[in-house]
């Protein structure tokens, strides 16, 4: 098997603050292949964004620091790269899309100027005129109507959805192999969300781009993900194929997350308690203080390793799934579907085609 | 945009008119120390009180009705006939023409140095927050803000003039303008004015740039592959220019209204500050008015340029076309 496009191993990103060291990401591993969409889910503060921004070292250093682990992109170790190499990587082979399109564009430059900047930073030979032509093409490709006349407009003259398309156009300026999208639809109108997700999917099909999508919206996950990584307090709780995660959620945290989803035809519930302290996290499983199935073993030692669930692409960090342990403690007596009708694509049988 | 500029220009004219009218009102309502001393002198020499007063008023045109005087005053202002300075026995405009180059000689370099260095250091502080350099710059800025101009000036004279003998103790106005000697004697006053304005420039540009250092669009620029120099100059400094442009006018006013008086009196520079100071002490009403009107006009014109600069710097401002 060839090496995946992006391979994160045991990544630890800490922030050194006056209140102590914040262990925002504390041993995260994940892989992304070309043409694959991996969704990183978890509630706010679980370390999703820091994971995403650690990939190209966008986090401010200091106070941030990647203290351990490797990030390999196409065979090269990003954590060992010089600033010059990183600058070539950012916006070159790896494009970024951010959560808030209102703030992601510089208000004093035209959108054309900003897309041209993205092009010319990585293609030093591109003359202004040529870069402008390419910028118009990009705007056209991301679905800005009348791109030729709108290229000289300023960001405030566009709507939120249009701005996000422009941000995507900038991310695509150098035909990247990997797109990192940090909650790209969270700040947008529901009607616009689907358009943006479809646009990303088109891009992926056209260029076989790998996508890391950060989101807390399980609806989005169901829509676009091939694989899912569930994060909690800087650790990976569960990962696997999107259908596995939705049909057979195994970690108590994943199950609790799914129970928070409205529209399953069952009673909605919230997860009691709140995220643990990031400066002094609890021993054992990070989730045990809020976990209804916690036993003595959960409170000691390190976060449990990833145990395989069934035979498929599915692993979970929970003592109840240790070989020899009894998973039915979490899954219920019949061993399946204790959460209820949560399904990939929200139960839409044709959902796979919608994207 | 055109209409915005036209309206802005029209408002400048209106504001000037209002200020001139107010000034006239104040002048008409205030007692005239010159008249008092003239009448007192006439009476002492055996003249009649009433007659002396009348002859003074006739000579000054004060016997005319108020609106006539107002008309003459406004015409005088527009035609640059700003009255007669009793204490200097010359037209007010002539006194100002003689004085202003001396103020410009130290104020211009001080303004340029403090703006360029102040903004540069402020930007560096903002992008290197809580570093040793940032703390050093902050300490320097607070020193500059805290130390009074006149005291710092006296210290300079004492240390570099009296003890070390590097600079003259007071300003020699008979030295040719374009000579090394003149440059030498302008160094100390320039430094004093620079220190007081660079401090506020540094603090202001640091605070302004800090708003943009963590802005999302700066992160976008980083994610596009922009290096740190490009991020600071293109993505932090350029949007920060909009608020930064506002401080320049205030800075000039601060020099004209505050620093110039203190510095020129301490160093003995015959500039506008000293001219105004002496006029106030000697109650030379016409000259006081003229020297006070200068900063007023600087404020009006400065604000005009500032608003025009906004039209270029900030594309988000809506000018409400007619």
TrEMBL record, chain A:
Membrane-protein topology: Peripheral membrane protein
Membrane among keywords: yes
Enzyme class: translocase
Residues of the ABC transporter domain: 6-258
NCBIfam families in alphabetical order: oligo_HPY (TIGR01727)
Protein name listed in UniProt: Nickel import system ATP-binding protein NikD
Xref: PROSITE patterns: ABC_TRANSPORTER_1, ABC_TRANSPORTER_2
GO cellular component term of the entry, any: plasma membrane
Documented EC number(s): 7.2.2.11
Organism domain of life: Archaea
Signal sequence segment: none
Region described as Disordered: 327-355
Entries under InterPro entries matching the protein: AAA+_ATPase, ABC_Ni/Peptide_Import, ABC_transporter-like_ATP-bd, ABC_transporter-like_CS, Oligopep_ABC_C, P-loop_NTPase
Compartments, record wording: Cell membrane
Catalytic activity: Ni(2+)(out) + ATP + H2O = Ni(2+)(in) + ADP + phosphate + H(+)
Any one GO BP annotation for this protein: peptide transport
Gene Ontology molecular function, alphabetical: ABC-type nickel transporter activity; ATP binding; ATP hydrolysis activity
Alphabetized UniProt keyword annotations: ATP-binding, Cell membrane, Ion transport, Membrane, Nucleotide-binding, Translocase, Transport
Subunit architecture: The complex is composed of two ATP-binding proteins (NikD and NikE), two transmembrane proteins (NikB and NikC) and a solute-binding protein (NikA).
Organism annotation: Halogeometricum limi
TrEMBL record, chain B:
Transmembrane segments: 9-29, 106-127, 139-166, 252-273, 285-305
PROSITE patterns xrefs: ABC_TM1
Membrane-protein topology: Multi-pass membrane protein
Location of this chain's protein in the cell: Cell membrane
Keyword hit for Acetylation: no
Predominant subcellular localization, coarse grouping: membrane
Coiled-coil portions: none
Any Pfam family the entry gives: BPD_transp_1
Domain ABC transmembrane type-1 as annotated: residue spans: 100-306
Entry's Gene Ontology BP terms: transmembrane transport
InterPro entries in UniProt: MetI-like, MetI-like_sf
CDD domains with a match to the protein in the record: TM_PBP2
Gene Ontology CC terms, in alphabetical order: plasma membrane
Keywords: Cell membrane, Membrane, Transmembrane, Transmembrane helix, Transport
Family: Belongs to the binding-protein-dependent transport system permease family.
Protein name: Peptide/nickel transport system permease protein
Provenance organism: Halogeometricum limi
């Amino acid at each position: 098997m060839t090496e995946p496009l992006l391979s994160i191993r045991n990544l630890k990103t800490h922030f050194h603050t006056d209140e102590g060291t914040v262990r925002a990401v504390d041993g995260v591993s994940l892989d992304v292949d070309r043409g694959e969409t991996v969704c990183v889910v978890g509630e706010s503060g679980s370390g999703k964004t820091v994971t995403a921004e650690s990939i190209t070292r966008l986090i401010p250093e200091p106070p941030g620091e990647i203290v351990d682990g490797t990030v390999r992109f196409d065979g090269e170790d990003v954590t060992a790269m010089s600033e010059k190499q990183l600058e070539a990587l950012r916006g070159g082979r790896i494009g970024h899309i951010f959560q808030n399109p209102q703030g992601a564009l510089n208000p004093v430059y035209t959108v054309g100027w900003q897309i041209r900047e993205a092009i010319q930073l990585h293609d030093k030979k591109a003359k202004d005129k040529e870069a402008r032509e390419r910028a118009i093409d990009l705007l056209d490709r991301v679905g800005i109507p009348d791109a030729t006349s709108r290229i000289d407009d300023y960001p405030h003259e566009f709507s939120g959805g249009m701005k996000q398309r422009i941000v995507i156009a900038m991310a695509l300026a150098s035909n990247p192999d990997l797109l990192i999208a940090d909650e790209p639809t969270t700040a947008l109108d529901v009607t616009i969300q689907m358009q943006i997700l479809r646009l990303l999917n088109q891009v992926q099909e056209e260029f076989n781009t790998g996508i890391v999508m950060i989101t807390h919206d399980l609806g989005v996950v169901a829509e676009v993900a091939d694989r899912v990584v569930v994060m909690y307090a800087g650790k990976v709780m569960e990962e696997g194929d999107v259908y596995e995660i939705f049909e057979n959620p195994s970690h108590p945290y994943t199950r609790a997350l799914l129970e928070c989803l409205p529209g399953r035809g069952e009673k909605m519930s919230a997860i009691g308690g709140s995220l643990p302290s990031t400066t002094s996290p609890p021993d054992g499983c990070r989730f045990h203080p809020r976990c209804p199935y916690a036993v003595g073993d959960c409170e000691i030692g390190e976060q449990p390793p990833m145990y395989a669930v069934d035979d498929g692409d599915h692993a979970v960090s929970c003592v109840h799934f240790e070989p020899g342990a009894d998973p039915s403690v979490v899954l219920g007596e019949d061993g399946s579907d204790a959460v209820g009708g949560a399904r990939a694509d929200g139960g839409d049988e044709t959902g796979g085609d919608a994207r | 945009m055109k209409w915005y500029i036209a309206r802005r220009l029209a408002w400048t004219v209106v504001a000037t008119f209002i200020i001139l009218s107010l000034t006239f009102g104040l002048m008409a309502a205030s007692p005239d120390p010159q008249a008092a001393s003239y009448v007192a002198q006439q009476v002492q020499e055996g003249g009649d009180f009433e007659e002396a007063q009348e002859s003074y008023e006739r000579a000054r045109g004060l016997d005319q009705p108020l609106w006539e005087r107002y008309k003459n005053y406004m015409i005088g202002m527009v035609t640059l006939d700003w009255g007669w300075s009793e204490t200097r026995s010359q037209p007010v405009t002539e006194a100002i023409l003689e004085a202003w180059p001396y103020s410009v000689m130290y104020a211009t370099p001080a303004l340029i140095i403090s703006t360029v260095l102040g903004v540069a250091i402020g930007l560096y502080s903002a992008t290197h927050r809580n570093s040793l350099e940032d703390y050093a710059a902050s300490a320097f800025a607070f020193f500059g803000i805290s130390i009074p101009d006149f005291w710092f000036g006296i210290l300079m004279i004492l240390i570099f003039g009296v003890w070390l003998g590097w600079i003259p103790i007071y300003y020699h106005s008979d030295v040719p303008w374009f000579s090394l000697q003149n440059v030498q004697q302008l160094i100390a006053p320039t430094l004093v004015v620079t220190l007081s304005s660079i401090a506020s420039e540094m603090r202001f540009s640091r605070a302004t740039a800090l708003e943009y250092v963590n802005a999302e669009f700066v992160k976008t620029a980083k994610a596009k592959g922009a290096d740190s120099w490009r991020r600071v100059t293109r993505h932090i400094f350029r949007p920060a220019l909009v608020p930064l442009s506002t401080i320049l006018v205030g800075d000039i006013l601060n020099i004209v209204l505050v620093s110039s008086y203190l510095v020129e009196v301490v160093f003995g520079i015959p500039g506008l500050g000293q001219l105004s100071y002496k006029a106030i002490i000697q109650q030379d009403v016409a000259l006081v008015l003229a020297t006070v009107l200068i900063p007023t006009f600087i404020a009006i014109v400065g604000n005009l340029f500032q608003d025009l600069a906004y039209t270029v710097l900030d594309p988000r401002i809506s000018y409400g076309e007619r």
